[in-house]
Write a structure and sequence with these properties.
- The protein is mainly alpha-helical and 72 residues long.
- Helices cover 42% and strands 8% of the residues.
- It contains two helices and two strands.
- A two-stranded antiparallel ribbon has the order 1-2.
- 0% of the residues are buried.
Length: 72
């Protein structure tokens, strides 16, 4: 039984070692979406006007046209 557990653990570690890992130096693929800052500002402005508070769990995003150049 102990040999079987050791064999399974060794196989699992060997499989993990062979997997590709994305490092911090590797560039991320360009996203089709960007954070919608105009929508964020509008919602937060409305919340302030009504004495509310917004807690962002996931920021709203909008689709970016692929034929427009980067603004940065």
């Amino acid at each position: 039984m102990r040999t079987l557990v050791l064999l399974i653990a060794t196989a699992f570690l060997a499989a993990c070692a062979g997997a590709t890992v994305q490092t911090a130096r590797a560039p991320l693929p360009k996203s089709e979406y960007e954070i919608d800052t105009q929508k964020i500002a509008m919602i937060e402005r409305q919340a302030r006007m009504n004495w509310g508070r917004v807690y962002w769990v996931s920021l709203p995003r909008r689709k970016v046209d692929s034929d427009t150049p980067d603004r940065n």
